[in-house]
């Protein structure tokens, strides 16, 4: 007799670990029963936040959701390189190889959003396309810093204004870089760090309901902030330092990404100007474009139904 409290296999979330070159054991959430698919999460995100969108698809696909060092289930695993994008790309390469060997496939589809998609641009530059059958790029430019020939970097025309804010908060936290416990920071600094994070989150969404959700989730009154145990604050600051210091530009690798690509764009994205994102589609040899006109950068939050439809269509090839 079937135990009604036992979920069918396809709905059982499991965790596997993959050993990296430096000996770290990175967790990968796994769910589903079918063709292997990998999805890469955004800055500050937990890979398991993809679950609401993939659960209806788990009868046809097995989803591999890696947790990047410092985030989600890997929050206790530290970076060993300043260039975190490069380190994440190395880690992703090992994970892809592991899944391909374990599932006896030559390649697999990959979907990546925001920071995860930046990692994929780095991956393509370093490891090529042979292990990726098709790719869904979700609102991410291959260029972070604006340049004379590219004004579509992070925050577009507001880049300098917002980068100045980020430089300020990084500089303020540097004297406390060896302090692990967020609650031990001066209150004014805790307020500044959380305010800047809230600003970034609000810039990532467009719909009023999404902004309301972000405001509720990020609200910290004084009493709550005193006791707020912000586990990932140091890791976020390290990533932010690298974003500000390293001139990430993966455009030279684009012409070699000849696999089918869907470039999914938030039509109201404040992080990456949609017009410049459309130029990426034109630069890719085998790309199609989908614009969700009411979505900001955080497409799954702003347009969950639209995102699900695009993801399902991408997986169906």
TrEMBL record:
* Top-level taxonomy: Bacteria, Pseudomonadati, Pseudomonadota, Gammaproteobacteria, Moraxellales
Q: Which residue intervals define the domain AB hydrolase-1 in the entry?
A: 36-304
Q: What protein name applies here?
A: Alpha/beta fold hydrolase
**SUPFAM superfamilies the record matches:** alpha/beta-Hydrolases
For this chain, one GO molecular function annotation is: hydrolase activity
Q: Name one Pfam family in it.
A: Abhydrolase_1
- Keywords recorded for this protein, A-Z: Hydrolase
* Originating organism: Psychrobacter glacincola
